[in-house]
Predict the 3D structure of the following.
Amino acid sequence: MSSLKEILTRRPVSATIRLTVPAGAARPAPPVGPALGQYRLNLMAFCKDFNARTQKYKPDTPMAVTITAYKDNTFEFTVKSPSVTWYLKKAAGIELGSGRPHIYEIAKVKQSDPYCQYMSLESICKSIIGTANTMGIQVVKELD
């Protein structure tokens, strides 16, 4: 339960914006510009911070970002790692890309997400295998 001090110091939220932006490629052009501009948020500050946070990923990796816009024209955002389906498509060679990451490597990256940080690697791997089966991708133990 929240204390009185926490309740009084909360800022009123104007909107919650969800976007998919390529890693290291946030620019004040669409889709970022119109989405943030309508709430009068500082586009350049977001682009600079987002690009700094996502520099460890390969360029053009789709990153999910949730932006919380406040009434005083400030914002906070969280960046999630790419979706499991994107990694699986890349591993299966469905989309252009080099290398074939293993389930374990995908799970290590997904473990950094806020919703997966308390899950064991084994349970994340099982979830990824389930997603692969749903997509029609067969997971094998060894490559031929």
Q: What stands out?
A: The chain has a mean pLDDT of 82. Helices lie at 4-9, 32-37, 43-53, 84-92, 103-110, 121-135. The chain is about 40% helix and 15% strand. The first helix runs from residue 4 to 9.
